[in-house]
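Entry for alpha-D-galactopyranose complex. Fields follow.
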Amino acid sequence: MFLALCACLMAGVQSHAIDLLPTFGDIDHIHLPALLVQHADGDQSLQLRAQDTTYTDNAQYMETVIATKDLVQPFYVTIHVRQWKAVEITETWYDISHTEKKPVRLQRYDSGYLPINGDNPHLLHLHGNWAAEGVPTVEPLTRGVKAIRNSDGARNAHLDAPEVMIALDGVPQENYGRVLGAALCWSGNFELRVAATDEKGFHFYAGIDPMASEYILEPKKVFSTPHLAYTWSNEGMGGVSRAFHRWARTCGMLHNGNATRDILLNSWEGIYFDITEERILAMMNDIASFGGELFVMDDGWFGAKYQRNSDNAALGDWVVDTRKLPNGLKALTDAAKDRHIKFGIWIEPEATNTLSELYEKHPDCVLQERNRELKLGRGGTQLVLDMTNPKVQDFVFSIVDDLLTKHPEIAYIKWDANASIQNCGSTYLPRDKQSNLYVDYHLGLVKTLERIRAKYPNVVIQNCASGGGRANYGLMPYFDEFWVSDNNDALQRVYIQWGTSYFFPSNAMAQHIGGSPYLMTGRTTPIKFRCDVAMSGRLGMELQPAHMTDEERAQCTVAFADYKELRPLIQLGNLYRLVSPYEPVPVVEKQQVASLLYVNDAKDHAVLFAYGLSSFMKQSSRRIRLAGLDPDRTYTLHEKNIRVAYHHDRNAWGEGEPCELDGKSFTGAYLMSVGLDIPLSTEYNIDYPSRIFELK
Ligand code: GLA
């Protein structure tokens, strides 16, 4: 791939840049334009020719920069191709500028273009919704244009997500086959297109969605498109995922990417808006008693004139509600310190409610269409702030800055975003630049996050948007993790986490043990299953511990202790997905299973997760073949988070008996070719059986 790319680059230098950037006015009938502009004088053509090529070669990457100019207009595009050295990921983007007499209208401005040549290409893309994120859809690519797009405005990973895989030779496989993986590093509206306009092959384009987003570019200003990151793997989808995970962790695409994250309790599903100091202190006691490390106070803690007792008021009024917390945040951060845990807090800084002091005083601070009625979001009152406005950016910065200046003990922020852009207008942007809004919103957001990170590099910040609505590489560099989903039903979480892991690393994936029966689905799942499912990523809890049974408390205590030992492996290891929950089986006859494994770089330490998803008597079990191990090494299995049992001699719950595989040794070759019969039988077991093994 690298050589082919170099050849393209050289061709681009000598002639025109179509191989890297097809432009309207310079393309054959086969290509679609990746760049289409209307010049100041009305001319719509663009014939870019290379002027100069420079190379950067440093310890981290090689970057080729091709400066191009239009044959006629003073219009310039600088093409960047950055190839990372530690990982097979290439990033491409364009810097667009001009010195024409008046603004130029960018009507289509993709980030990258790739030709795809495969005999039977198949597309995998992630679809989903609130509480049901990351569902993979696989389909053959056929003639015509297939587009994946999102026009939420503020978030872009619910519904369709800005990452795809394209397998060249049929349905993509997990561990073999040629697969392209691509992610548009952008948090706003996007459009990814695969076009088959002739018999020769397919063409992939990725960029900002041009719908209602004609970008008005002033002379001498530079517009940089978002980066398109892509990789080629011969190791199937697993190879693509591992490349993205490594890139996220080691190339600055995930904030503090190489660090592990704490075990936390989040207050939301335990007490919702019913925050009181007493309840918060009790929850802190609980998480500390299980061995957890962080407590996060979610929505409901703020508001003066308007109280935050439901989702319809007080966003924007970021002062402590002293009716609920008479001793303020200081009492809480002190209490956390006394319990040797850290303290975190929820905010939704880009939003307000019509019922808020902020909105009463500054009605101009929200996105709004002149002379039209406001369309209201969550709670019937929510509005999105105008992040194109530098004053609003300052305000959003000050929310975090004030909190962290007054309370430097705050170690964690959950940054939420629960509204889409429904009012596509800005009182800040001039009338002739309203179509810059969808783009400038995100540029303003990123600018604000950059300021926050420059001043507060160490506070852990979670990226949340009604769950996983903002799981994208546009925002990931500023966040340490993201909330995978508002749905904590352990069964559905297996599926949600599976799809999400295609592109995102486990230390970024916040996975919480929920209550049972679970409030959204009514499903009852055993505490061990809930722990085991949450333990495959960044472990946390999202329930009211006061409602837990002694058995549940005991299991969580075992889970937390084992997780701490396994944490570097789980959060920073190389992921091998072994058996997909999506794999079709004759369900009564054969057990539906999901299994995954993390291995360290030295391949001498691994952890295996196996989940039974369907339970029928006399079902045959599935043999699970491992992957990613050293075939010549011998591994000994140690069962972890063993199901607790009641010990009558001690009158207490404690770890029960491990299964028969515990202590057994196998070679890597055996584990990968013959595999394991993991006891997930339902005959003497409960519904939703699961096992975790450490391999050393
Ligand atoms: C969103 C988040 C939840 C919770 C609520 C609070 O829905 O995804 O986790 O924080 O907001 O209002």
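NOTE: The chain is about 20% helix and 30% strand.
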